[in-house]
Amino acid sequence: MKCIVCNSPDIKKKKVEEEIKIGNDVAFVSIEVLVCNGCGERYYDRRTMKELESIEKNIKERNIQLEEVGRILKPTGT
Asked: Is residue 2 domain-resident?
């Protein structure tokens, strides 16, 4: 397999943090996907996408307990 963005053959399975946005909040979910080591492009198979969709649904329905790990701040007026 070659990367569709940079054409690199260096694609490996890696654990990444995927962001799921719920309103003004963001939940980080660790998941394994194929990642191009050349440009960072991520490749998701159907099983992984269904898993992420299920996690997002469970977060919205409050079926998953979330832990607060920090705050996100931005300058006022921007």
From this structure: no
